[in-house]
TrEMBL record:
It is found in: Cell membrane. The keyword Kinase applies. Gene3D superfamilies: 1.10.287.130, 6.10.340.10, Histidine kinase-like ATPase, C-terminal domain. It catalyses: ATP + protein L-histidine = ADP + protein N-phospho-L-histidine. The lineage of its organism: Bacteria, Bacillati, Actinomycetota, Actinomycetes, Kitasatosporales. The chain crosses the membrane at residues 33-56, 94-115. SMART domains: HAMP, HATPase_c, HisKA. Its main location: membrane. PANTHER family: SENSOR HISTIDINE KINASE TRCS (PTHR45436:SF5), SENSOR HISTIDINE KINASE YKOH (PTHR45436). Residues 179-405 form the Histidine kinase domain. This is histidine kinase. Keywords: Kinase, Membrane, Phosphoprotein, Transferase, Transmembrane, Transmembrane helix, Two-component regulatory system. One of its GO terms (molecular function) is kinase activity.
């Protein structure tokens, strides 16, 4: 079969289709303007057609019988013909004027529609400009769009809320990285100092080498605990995988077994009330959360203090699974009302944070990520964790998770 000759309509149509597909897309402002103009043109054309039709019907309808003279004038036919010519000319002139006026009105409406569309779409242009210049250093800027509470105003407010959340996330991330860098620097500095001090001696003794080895081992263990805690925190902030039905009371009982020896060492008054609390979640993460709660309660408790652990199920009034709760209370120093919320921040150890007084002791052995991990686990399961300072001293932390039906 011979190919179609060049320039034939068989080759013209693919070129036209390719050219049409490759044209630049029309902006929403242009589309709105064309829509306004097209609607006005259609409406105006119908109006002109209706007026012209009515005009023709009125001027070309026959005269009524009482309007026809009984005695015809010799020039009657001449006058009738002249009258028809005048009416035809008037109708044609009216039609031309109507079409010219229609074109002028359509052009004016297109210009007015272009300006109106620009005014209406100005908030979208502001949102687009803000999105283009949004970086980690400009997330504090807000649109604060003026105007009535319409869809565009709602879109601008939603964009401002998104910027606010992103700004808070970036601030938290920068603070977390800075704190993590500082925390990791401390054991590395201790390790380097122990090695340099030992190597600087002319003839180190075996006891000095052993002391250096112990210092290095302790610093390495501290760095390892911190890295493990960071990995656990990162894992806890992800969505829950492989959820199963379990009981929060059983999870708390297993966590109690891990801290039982330290409770005896500190002569703590352990009181438990573990009622059934069905829950649906990741068993490993729930175990980490319960263990962290109890380890913090033991570590920051006073000698011979109270450690109270209780669990139960709270109804949400909807007839579903309700909420599964685990509450841990301990004795300790008096805390301000604002302190408990700050304890959920990463690397926060109350008065023993990096910004605190720097005193050494058992309370500084932790990385300051225990309650942060508990909060991350709670959020990953769709729950929450709250802390409340006890009037007599100490803290009460409540872990609340969606219950299993």
């Amino acid at each position: 079969m011979n190919p179609p000759p060049p320039g034939s309509r068989f080759q013209l149509w693919p070129r036209l289709r390719t050219a049409w597909a490759g044209r630049p897309a029309l902006t929403i402002r242009t589309r709105l303007t064309l829509t306004y103009a097209a609607l006005f043109a259609v409406g105006g054309s119908l109006l002109v057609l209706a007026l012209t039709t009515a005009f023709y019907r009125l001027i070309f309808q026959p005269l009524p019988d009482d309007a026809v003279p009984s005695r015809l004038d010799p020039d009657h036919d001449h006058f009738i013909g002249l009258s028809d010519q005048i009416r035809d000319a008037a109708a044609s002139h009216l039609l031309r004027i109507a079409l010219i006026l229609l074109l002028a009105v359509v052009a004016t409406s297109a210009l007015v529609g272009w300006w109106t569309a620009g005014r209406m779409l100005r908030p979208i242009a502001a949102i687009t400009a803000a999105a283009r210049r949004a970086t980690d250093t400009t997330l504090h800027e807000r649109l604060n769009l003026p105007g009535p509470a319409d869809e565009l105003k709602e879109l601008g407010d939603t964009f401002d809320q998104m910027l606010e959340r992103l700004d808070a996330a970036f601030v938290t991330q920068r603070r977390f990285v800075a704190n993590a860098s500082h925390e990791l620097r401390t054991p590395l500095a201790l390790t380097r100092t122990a090695v340099e001090v030992t190597l600087a001696k002319p003839e180190p003794t075996e006891a000095q080498w052993r002391t250096m080895g112990q210092d290095v081992a302790q610093s390495t263990a501290r760095a390892q605990r911190l890295i493990d805690a960071l990995l656990t925190l990162a894992r806890s902030e992800q969505r829950v995988t492989d959820p199963v039905d379990d009981d929060l009371a059983d999870v708390a009982a297993e966590a109690l077994d891990q801290v039982a020896a330290r409770c005896q060492e500190r002569n703590l008054d352990l009181r438990t009330d573990l009622a059934p609390s069905p829950v649906h979640g990741n068993v490993a993460l729930l175990g980490i959360a319960a263990t962290n709660l109890l380890e913090n309660a033991v570590k920051y408790n006073r000698e011979g203090g109270l450690l109270q652990v209780s669990s139960g199920q709270v109804s949400d009034g909807s007839g579903g699974g309700g909420w599964a709760e685990l509450t841990v209370s301990n004795d300790g120093p008096l805390l301000d009302e604002a302190d408990p919320e700050a304890l959920f921040e990463p690397f926060h150890r109350g008065r023993n944070t990096r910004a605190g007084d720097g005193r050494s002791g058992a309370q500084q052995a932790g990385a300051g990520l225990g309650l942060s991990i508990v909060r991350a686990v709670a959020r990953a399961h769709g729950g929450e964790v709250t802390a409340r300072a006890r009037p007599e001293g100490g803290l009460t932390v409540t872990l609340r998770l969606p219950g299993s039906p």
